[in-house]
Design a protein that fits this description.
Shape: globular
Number of helices: 11
Length: about 260
């Protein structure tokens, strides 16, 4: 597939922005999937598979940057990581046989609920990690498995929901929650790529091109966030903006504003 020069520019700029957004908030796939379907013209299922290439490389690069700067504690986070990955494997096994379109109407109301959760008592999102926090296994196990299943099945909005659980329930700081999120998403996306490739649902030339932008955005955003004292504050603001834009898009509010 040959792309025009302007398409190449949009792909690289858009994927870099998406990688940055995914690293500190989530839902950057709203940008990359729009580029893949509307600009390049890939069918929905092929765009879904192709999109996972950049998600993997961006997550790996961001996780490495967070780890180098002491924001990713793999030992402390081993159970959220393992359980979420296990749930994701089950989710993707279902995803290849079931359409995701039926979930769009439910997802938009989940986003409205998420916006309320983010805006009510925002100081909860800005605290530092509580290293003494020990989540109860009877709650934590099904919660992380459910998150993983959702991510493997739908992916859309997974980052936002994962951050809510890690910050509000597991009591991680927003930056450290993003570090764990990146590692988890990268790990299960690596496995998911094999499933989509087996189904012939990845366009590698396009996927690798987007991966260049997403990896660049993911690495430098993680590197900066790990070192910047106000990173939690800006991550929270970006999260609010991302959810607001998702709601506007899901409810077609942009069409109402446009007349």
């Amino acid at each position: 597939m040959e792309l025009e020069l302007y398409q190449l520019a949009i792909v690289l700029i858009g994927s870099t922005l998406a990688g940055s957004i995914n690293t500190l908030a989530g839902n950057g796939s709203a940008i990359t999937l729009t580029i893949l379907t509307e600009l390049i013209g890939l069918p929905g299922n092929l765009a879904n598979g192709t999109n996972r290439v950049g998600i993997f490389t961006q997550s790996a690069a961001g996780s490495y940057a967070f780890y180098r700067n002491g924001k990713l504690d793999l030992q402390r986070s081993r159970w959220p990581i393992l359980l979420t990955i296990a749930g994701a494997i089950a989710g993707v096994a279902v995803a290849v046989n079931v359409s995701n379109e039926a979930f769009r109407s439910v997802f938009r109301f989940l986003m409205v609920l998420m916006l309320l959760v983010i805006l009510v008592k925002p100081k909860r999102w800005l605290r530092e990690s509580d290293l003494e926090r020990q989540p109860h296994p009877l709650v934590a196990i099904p919660l992380y498995l459910g998150l993983g299943f959702y991510g493997g099945f739908i992916q859309m909005g997974m980052g936002v929901f994962f951050l809510a659980v890690m910050v509000l329930y597991a009591r991680y700081s927003l930056v450290e929650a993003n570090a764990v999120k990146g590692f988890v998403v990268g790990a299960y996306t690596f496995l998911v790529i094999f499933v989509f490739q087996w189904q012939g649902l990845i366009s590698w030339p396009v996927g690798l091109l987007m991966a260049v932008g997403q990896t660049t955005g993911g690495y430098f955003t993680a590197h900066y966030a790990a070192r910047y004292p106000q990173a939690n504050v800006w991550a929270h603001r970006l999260l609010v903006a991302v959810v607001l834009l998702a709601i506007a898009r899901l409810f077609d509010l942009h069409l109402l504003l446009g007349g």
